[in-house]
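Intended use. Records like the one below are meant for learning the mapping from a protein sequence to its folded structure. Do not use them to infer anything beyond what is encoded.
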Amino acid sequence: MPRTPEEIRALEDRVNQIESWYHRIDLGDGVETPGHFRMADYLDYYHFPADMSGMRVLDVGASTGYFAYEFERRGAAEIVGIELPSWEAHDWTPRKRRELDHKDADKRAKDNRDVMIDGFMVVGEALGSTRVKREFRPIYEINSQDLGTFDIVFSGAMLMHVRDPILGIQRMRDCCKPDGRLIVSISAAIDTDEPVAKFVGEWNECNWWQMSPKCLDTVLECCDFDRIEHRERYTLEDVTGQFKDPTYVCHALPRQD
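Structure written out for the chain above:
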């Protein structure tokens, strides 16, 4: 049902009240979130099933929700978006953590709402979502005992932000059904056919490791994925065209014991 002009203005106001958007998402009626990345432009590289009817999907690092709601649009029966419980819960360096601890409490609360909570919620309400829910926990704490297993576990461009990406992949492996799959993308600025990882840590940024595509493949095999499919590479650009990030995407299928 089309929105009234008053409803459109109210939605625009809610979007504009949020200061931090990651994804640029079409909410209908000419309303679009002002995120940095329009991931709809890159969907073909991910080889998601066109029809996801009946599937359980885990979106690890859901951010403002583009992929979670795309899975719902494709018919997934249940989507669980994993997000950190707060901005402070990232794998920060000790110096950055001390800096965050000294921030004004109201500013910290506003940042947490904008980045971790409100954007995802506004998008879900605008799209009429009924099958997407969120769990707030770090990647190291996802497990099949709490969450069950999933037909698809998805991780989009977030492994460089965790100190231990190998443990993160192990935890995602635990949540894959035996006949399921992990779909993962990474920043792949390392141009080599060797299984190389590069430390890119900065004291004031939550960036840790970049992996070559061969490195990710090798880690996946080490973590009990025995087949890699749909290897793709593309260059992710922000909406200004100024930021360009070589990206690697693949599907990993669990080893059958």
